[in-house]
Design the sequence.
């Protein structure tokens, strides 16, 4: 896997009379060490076989996955037949479509399980097949691509420190458009992602969406306050944001197939529930 070179710009929207960031922030940012962050490094082929033959037949019996997968089938088939990225399989294309479709809304169930599923990953995690297909699709679409600047708006407030290393710890949607305030007016993340992938060609929505995987690690470069209109304005001093080289080094998580292990050198700061508000994925 490539080394992550990225800038993480955290812009918190507060009213002008606010006394300080720490007083009003509600959700702490952290490394999310309880998240399912498997990269399938070294066992991609083995997992591809097991996802199709073992996990999917078992997991498709459960709702709401069954309904979401069924509804997306014909739409995903069309996307697959017209795809430019020939490495993508039909299951990977359908996973992207299922994640982005508005009805039935499956991404909330997926991310709720991903955020806290590390301890039960080998036994009771309910979405092995889907997690693999979505993760591997992101990896294909981001491979050999340039890092890109994206924005993520929320209707909740977060707490963090400059130079703090964090992860979202779930599949985090972001956009190439900085002004999508319909997704939130409280917090805006200005991100440079090197592992995120543009999924607009396979999405169930017509948005310039970039999906960030749970394992990508960021460093908070700056925290600013301002109005929701000016926050994340790309014209505001982007050159002042220094790049930070962060080697993507997920914690110890065994693959359900080949037992590949990653270094256990990250200490969790907390494991907050970062359930998105409203439509935000």
Sequence:
């Amino acid at each position: 896997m490539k080394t992550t070179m990225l800038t993480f710009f955290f812009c918190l929207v507060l009213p002008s009379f606010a006394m300080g960031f720490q007083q009003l922030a509600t959700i702490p940012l952290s490394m999310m060490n309880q998240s399912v962050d498997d990269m399938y490094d070294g066992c991609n082929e083995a997992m591809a076989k097991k996802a199709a033959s073992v996990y999917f037949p078992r997991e498709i019996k459960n709702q709401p996955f069954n309904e979401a997968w069924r509804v997306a089938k014909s739409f995903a088939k069309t996307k697959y037949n017209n795809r430019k990225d020939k490495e993508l399989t039909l299951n990977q294309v359908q996973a992207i479509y299922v994640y982005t479709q508005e009805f039935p809304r499956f991404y909330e169930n997926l991310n709720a399980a991903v955020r806290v599923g590390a301890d039960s990953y080998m036994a009771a995690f309910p979405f092995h097949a889907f997690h693999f297909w979505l993760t591997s699709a992101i990896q294909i679409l981001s491979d050999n691509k340039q890092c890109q600047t994206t924005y993520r708006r929320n209707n909740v407030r977060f707490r963090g420190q400059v130079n703090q290393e964090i992860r979202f710890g779930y599949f985090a949607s972001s956009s190439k458009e900085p002004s999508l305030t319909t997704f939130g007016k409280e917090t805006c993340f200005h991100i440079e992602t090197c592992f995120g992938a543009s999924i607009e060609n396979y999405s169930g929505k017509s948005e310039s969406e970039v999906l960030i995987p749970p394992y990508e690690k960021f460093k908070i470069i700056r925290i600013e306050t301002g109005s929701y209109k000016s926050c994340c304005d790309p014209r505001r001093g982007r050159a002042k944001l220094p790049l930070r080289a962060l080697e993507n080094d997920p914690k110890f998580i065994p693959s359900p197939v080949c037992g590949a292990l990653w270094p256990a050198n990250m200490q969790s700061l907390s494991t907050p529930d970062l359930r998105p508000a409203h439509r935000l994925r």
